[in-house]
Amino acid sequence: MKDLSKYQGIFPAFYACYDEQGAISPERVRALTEYLIGKGVTGLYVGGSSGECIYQSVAERKLLLENVMEVARGRIVIIAHVACNNTADSMELAAHAESLGVDAIAAIPPIYFHLPPYGMAKYWNDISSAAPNTDFIIYNIPQLAGVALSSALLREMLKNPRVIGVKNSSMPVQDIEMWRDEGAIVFNGPDEQLLSGLVAGAVGGIGGTYGAMPELYLKIFELVRNNEIARAREIQDECCHVIYQMCSCRGNMYAVIKGILRENGGPDIGSVRAPLYELQPEDGETVRACAARIRELIAKYC
């Protein structure tokens, strides 16, 4: 039986790191990796939605992962999202990720053309075959991918010995219970329901706002493990309020998060890539307010 205990904990979804011209910045990638390791996170989820993967080339995604691994190898757990909208590029990224020594690879289903379940299974198994010594995680995000994981499809995928679990970003917590019942480990996806996901049996969380306030999510995880649910709920509610405030800005949420990171002494990792909307001047007050609130919450709870 494979020991999957290393996947228990908090995994910030790694952000795209750009220079002033909008190109991937290896220096900024390494700086963000070191910053998050210093916060005590379990691992990083690299190359997913928060990393703006669908707006990057295969070469850019390789460059980013290479620089994460240069800093993180042997220090924390790395899950590399490798899906592209075609099988060949996805397999190339999977093989590259394995060559770097990542702990696991992950993949959403192809978007735009909605494949039937047997088509999704073949796509995922083909990707997995390119990294035959690496754990594989299914990324279920139906609200963006347009297709959803089912229990029957998960059972089919679990016939592949490399498939260990699901990153579940669907909103129903029941999905976590169903995937767990099928024998998969499950990572909670929606940041607003980390507490609920953990109570439902998720082994940890992978989240897009974790990098802006990792201390708070680490505390939620610790409190749930200690069965201090009421205290964990307080922090979860506060995190949700910060997220709602982030989403009120005109600029894209990841541009807001990058602004909060800078405001709170984290590394400057640039802006977001078009067509994502960059931070606007009128967003400055909200960014500063969110950053200040995060500092207050860390002081109070951590």
Characterise this structure.
The chain has a single domain (8-301), classed as Aldolase class I (TIM Barrel, Alpha-Beta Barrel). Helix 2 links the parallel strand 2 (43-46) and strand 3. The mean pLDDT is 96. Strands 1-8-7-6-5-4-3-2 form an eight-stranded parallel beta sheet. The chain is built from twelve helices and eight strands. Helix 3 runs parallel beside helix 4 (117-129), helix 9 (214-225) packs antiparallel against helix 10 and helix 10 runs antiparallel to helix 12 (284-301). The chain is α/β, with parallel strands linked by helices. It is globular and about 50 Å long.
Give the tags.
302 residues, alpha/beta, 8 strands, 12% strand
SSE topology:
Layout: E1 9-12, H1 26-38, E2 43-46, H2 58-72, E3 77-81, H3 87-100, E4 104-107, H4 117-129, E5 135-140, H5 142-145, H6 151-157, E6 163-168, H7 173-181, E7 185-188, H8 194-199, E8 204-207, H9 214-225, H10 229-246, H11 253-263, H12 284-301
Parallel strand pairs: 1-8, 2-3, 3-4, 4-5, 5-6, 6-7, 7-8
Helix pairs in contact: 1-2, 2-3, 3-4, 9-10, 10-12, 11-12
Total strands: the figure is: 8
Radius of gyration: 18 Å
- CATH fold name: TIM Barrel
Strand order of the largest sheet: 1-8-7-6-5-4-3-2
- Outline the low-pLDDT stretches: none
Taking the alpha carbons of the first and last residues, their distance comes to 36 Å
SSE succession:
EHEHEHEHEHHEHEHEHHHH
| Residue share in β-strands | 5-15%
Please report the first level of CATH classification, the CATH class. Alpha Beta
- Give the class from helix and strand content and strand pairing: alpha/beta
Bulk shape: globular
Counted up, domains total 1
